[in-house]
């Protein structure tokens, strides 16, 4: 007997998406939905119609695996080739390795934090659509973190400052800035997290991170980093679209959402740009072959691209965050302020620093005609004199830090580049200090949150930066040396000046060997 | 404003004075000397004479600037958390009325940084 053959019809993208997302959900029958999803209402965001949420990419799990596996195969082929051919020796200059260190210590752990954050909130939304989208992004972020660490492990075999990136992320003073940024986001509710990370960070600021690092890698002969950058970039494009979709969805649902979202945009644009201080510095000072200045990147990726975005959001009543005024005033100062700080605080860093050469300074003068020669060149020239005299200038004292962004209080008053900015607040009988009006505003909006900040310098003073079993009352106890041991910084190897470092020496030696006949 | 949360949200401040083993954290920054990228922080014994704070911890760092040696401390102008402050050099940190996490700034007229340029 002939069996009738029913030819299986291939599902269209839209149908498949419906089946693989909302089709997997169900109406709860014996528990109230508010008890199952207790986290998506306390922030005050009102959603009336979850069905209005749509994933612009309609990405389903099966498609996701196929697509990412393909990218992974390509990436690892290049990462392996890089390792086998001693790719690290084709770099433009040994100084570039410090950019890699900054990336693995400062950025890769944030990808992991982002993975955790999206996994966390992926459980919190009552609708399947955003839950699936968050899960997918969570997986992306995990992969980003892994591929970055794998690619950079090729450098870790040869150079200092990378092996302890997880521990450094948790404890090293300068890395508490990125760490606290994500902890702040992850301890908000799901909507704040998605506005902070999915929109403010991924949409508004991500180009200012990716373009400098990845083009910087390409310009400086770093095939490994370039490849993971490109591999992540297609995901970033998806995340950006998603971030924008979320924000529009939330704004369209109810007018009460608008001021809440605006407050978060104000906060996270500021926190994001404060964090990008590290990128600004990398761009202007740490790339031996430069791509573009921070000021130029800001003009293209913020003023032009994001200017258009905020004009587009105006129809919902969203305005450009007021902190942008100050960011503009700081544009031509940010990277210089940061590098001057890292130069003098080099004892507690896990990368090396150096003074800009004469050619470097001429480039900086050309890119920053209004600020560099007047405010910053004199510092570098003086420090060069100190180095030449064998008495390099170094600030070994603990810097005063901002209670919110945790950055040392190194920023100047808006419009007055010769006066350091300080703001002050009292709360429940304690006093707090801030780098800016915007960080103080963030504090005053949620003081109970920020009184818990772990300020790195204070942690040292409280005795929380010593290894277990350390006796601070013992004779000859050296708190600074003990703190470095706790931070897992090998003094004289991981920290300090590039000139004369083992990294500089080894790179020259190995490159010489690679090019010689014997 | 109160933090919006799913439950009561109240915490102890992480950096209360009693967490510092008897020390009192004092910040100090030297205005017009941007060679130093920020003010610095020190955990000080409250009975430390103010003059010793200057001659000890502060000198260790600020002493690297050519303006430091020979400052006339009588003409220095101080602020504390943004308000005028006149330290008694011989009195202790506590007797000067300073408290935990006070931020001091000082200006040294006539010594205005490298080439008088605020650096
Ligand atoms: Fe990512
Ligand atoms: Fe701040």
Describe this structure in words.
Chain A: Pfam families: Phenol_Hydrox, YHS. Chain A: This is Phenol 2-monooxygenase. Chain A: Residues 412-452 form the YHS domain. The complex is a heterodimer of chains A (518) and B (119). Chain A has helices spanning 13-20, 33-36, 61-84, 97-106, 108-121, 128-156, 165-171, 176-186, 190-219, 223-253, 257-275, 277-286, 294-313, 323-330, 334-344, 358-367, 372-388, 437-445, 447-450, 456-461, 479-487, 502-515, and strands spanning 398-399, 412-413, 416-420, 423-427, 430-434. Chain A is mainly alpha-helical and 518 residues long. Among the domains of chain A are: 51-340, Orthogonal Bundle (Ribonucleotide Reductase, subunit A), CATH 1.10.620; 355-392, no CATH class. Chain B has one domain (19-116): Ubiquitin-like (UB roll), CATH 3.10.20. Classes of the chains: A mainly alpha (518), B alpha+beta (119). Chains A and B meet through α15, α17, β1, β3 and β5 of A and β1, β2, α1 and β5 of B. Bound molecules: fe (ii) ion (2 copies). The site of one fe (ii) ion has 6 residues of chain A, from α5 and α6. Residues 111, 114, 140-141, 144, 232 of chain A line the site of one fe (ii) ion.
